[in-house]
Amino acid sequence: MTDPTSDQEWLAQRFERHRSHLRGVAYRMLGSLDEADDAVQEAWVRLSRTDTNDVENLRAWLTTVVGRVCLNQLRTRRTRRETPLEVHVPDPIVGPLGGGGPEDEALLGDSIGLALLTVLESLTPAERVAFVLHDVFAIPFDDIAPIVGRSSTATRQLASRGRRRVQGARVPDADLEGQWAVVDAFLAASRDGDFGRLLAALDPDVTLRSDGGTSRPGLVTLVRGAQAVATNAMTFRRVATSATRTLVNGLPGGVAWAPDGRPFAVLSFTVVAGRIVEIDVLADPERLARLHLEAVR
């Protein structure tokens, strides 16, 4: 006679082998670490209630389950927001300069900066699910179609629309040290209040997004253009002065600290052709408190 407890333990062990992968899928879908964890937990609940005897590829099965859960979360998120947020910076993955551990690497996979996550957030829920599952994780369109409730042909079109948006995003320079040289020059100019040097580090069409959440509405802002961003950066001297160098989603960034030692903001920079094209700032204290940033102090 089969022991149900042993069966459940065996199933849990199989699930744990795929947890990091599933969290990476959900993070790309949702741009939220907490929501990604919720989606993975829901996948486990569904697995534990399912007869898996006919499941040939558990990893693929779980990936599609997470896709369904994330699609529901994305649709609920849109319904819940009566008015869209003016600026929303996705949850950053902050790690030391030497690189994060295996868990962070599984989350990031191919580098997925905050700027790219922001592009993904501009897609419809179905476009985002179709693009991420097919283009990032190679799930066939025939398997994605039932998730989004479309035909295989229509699902292919959803992914194609998402791909066009993503391909329109600017690709960061490959040379990380070169990126750091530009970011360091920008932060030094901010500290010195040197407007000319700030402009030299910025692309003419640079975008600055700052998300202070409901607690800091004054730090919720979207600024475009080098002149406007440089002017804004002049007011961030204290942030630049207290910033600790870190990697944010695999790209140059920093954590700015308040005088009491708590994190004040996470900054992420996207450098293309030797100039900064995107600056993302997360300054929402509630979300910062959940990131456990003491390791990069």
Tell me how many strands there are. Answer: 7
* Number of discrete helical segments: 13
CATH class category name of the largest domain: Mainly Alpha
Rounded to an integer in angstroms, the radius of gyration calculated over CA atoms is: 21 Å
CATH fold group of the largest domain = Butyryl-CoA Dehydrogenase, subunit A, domain 3
Low-confidence segments, ≥5 residues, pLDDT <50?
none
CATH architecture field of the largest domain:
Up-down Bundle
How far is the N terminus from the C terminus? Answer: 55 Å
Share of residues in helices: 40-55%
Number of domains: 2
Compressed to H and E, one letter per element, the order equals: HHHEHHHHHHHEEHHEEEEH
Query: How are the strands of the largest sheet arranged?
Result: 1-4-5-6-7-2-3
Shape, principal axes of CA atoms:
globular
